[in-house]
Amino acid sequence: MVGRPTKYNEEMLTLANAYIDQHLEYGSTVPNAAGMALALNVSKKTLYNWGEDHPEFLHTLDRLNEKQEDLLISKGITSEFNSTITKLMLANHGYHDKQDLKHEGGVSMTVSNEDADML
Asked: Whole-model pTM?
């Protein structure tokens, strides 16, 4: 089965990289796949398909994620971004708010002489 021809070409790669570098001009506070898809007039699924078929576009998608991660960290630390949203978005980059709880020690019981008489 033959699908319709791809829209992918050098111009799309150039536009995708321009979106990353100029995301604010496209109305995106942080660069993201949905914003890139809108800028290129394609679906997010198409972006990921291009990444599978074209190594240079996969590199662009990696750069998109790295730019997003960097902005979230930088602007999150300075409180320019909402901390809750930043935390949620950084989870997509492998960051987690996890507490390591360990229970150490045992349980001991002491029975006094008075209590022993009641048993």
From this structure: 0.76
